[in-house]
Amino acid sequence: MAGVPATDRRLGIGFDVGGSGIKAGLVDIAAGELVGERLRVRTPDPSDPAAVAVAMHGLLEQLTAGRPAAAGIPVGVGFPAAVIGGVTRTAANVDRSWVGYPAELELARRLEHPVAVGNDADVAGLAEMRFGAGRGAVGTVMVLTIGTGIGSALFVDGRLVPNTELGHLEMRGKDAERRASDAARMRRKLSWGAWAKVFDEYLHLVQHLFWPDLFILGGGVSKRSERFVPRLTIDVPVVPAQLLNDAGIVGAAIVAHERFGRPAGRGRGRPSRGPAAARPDEAASA
């Protein structure tokens, strides 16, 4: 986490909305890292749009207080849903009232900043491909975020295939995330060894559908990768995310910056309709 004053940096604001917590931070877009501390509040219960917007507004006020450089800059939001045209089409681990909700328009109105919304795993994956464990990777890369649920981001030669939502694959009669997420590990009070067997089964399921060249594991469990990765039997490289729990915030800020401003690591801006691809040549130059 860098200590250079925010006024000296190209800033973005990122939110990572999850079923249990909402995280936010100021982001140095060029470096792909947080400026100052990461803020977090519990996700409201019920987690309807109005309640979540109030929580986000409070975090935004904390982030921008005393920082003139942050006034009015675009806000990116990683959200646990399929997101198409700024509308949340599903609602994983949040209130069902988000289904069909015009999230970008309404959050922009409530936060009084330009807002770009993307699938939470997609934006976290973008950050990992630009600045983390996937930097320079080619072929098929699967980024999985394991926390309250399981998010997935699929990249083919650095280009994102959005909204894959592979946490909802069926695994022994249930959504896979009900069996193999970190929340399931804690709910069932599984040891890391016991949970590794369940998660290994999930990885084999994903492998047999997509045949990735690399798995990158993010979310809360990425900090404890040494407890379970050596126990996996999958014959594909599995590495922890390097940005850890900051990936969603960083990726969301990048998406907003590239939607409304100049793309990170490039000379000229261009409009974007969703999370940007992370091309290996761009990642190397970022």
What's the layout of helices and strands?
Blueprint lengths: L10 E7 L3 E8 L4 E10 L6 H16 L10 E5 L3 E2 L2 E2 L14 H9 L3 E5 H12 L8 E7 L3 E7 L2 E3 L8 E2 L2 E2 H5 L1 H6 L4 H19 L3 E5 L19 E3 L6 H14 L19 H6 L1
Parallel strand pairs: 1-4, 4-7, 8-13, 13-14
Antiparallel strand pairs: 1-2, 2-3, 5-6, 8-9, 9-10, 11-12
Write the CATH fold name of the largest domain. Nucleotidyltransferase, domain 5
Structurally, the number of domains stands at 2
End-to-end span in angstroms? 18 Å
Helical fraction equals 25-40%
Using the 3D structure, state the CATH architecture of the largest domain: 2-Layer Sandwich
State the order of secondary-structure elements, H for helix, E for strand: EEEHEEEHEHEEEEEHHHEEHH
CATH class of the largest domain: Alpha Beta
Descriptive notes:
- With 286 residues, this protein is an alpha/beta fold.
- It folds into 2 domains: 6-122 and 245-276, ATPase, nucleotide binding domain (Nucleotidyltransferase, domain 5, 2-Layer Sandwich); 136-242, ATPase, nucleotide binding domain (Nucleotidyltransferase, domain 5), CATH 3.30.420.
- 30% of the residues lie in helices and 24% in strands.
- It contains 8 helices and 14 strands.
- The protein has helices spanning 49-64, 103-111, 120-131, 176-180, 182-187, 192-210, 247-260, 280-285; strands at residues 11-17, 21-28, 33-42, 75-79, 83-84, 87-88, 115-119, 140-146, 150-156, 159-161, 170-171, 174-175, 214-218, 238-240.
- The strands form 4 sheets. Strands 3-2-1-4-7 form a 5-stranded mixed beta sheet. A 5-stranded mixed beta sheet has the order 10-9-8-13-14. It has a two-stranded antiparallel ribbon with strand order 5-6.
- A hairpin with a 3-residue loop joins strand 8 and strand 9 (150-156).
- Helix 3 packs across helix 7.
- The longest helix is centred in the C-terminal third of the chain and has 19 residues, at 192-210.
- The chain starts with 10 loop residues before the first strand and ends with a helix.
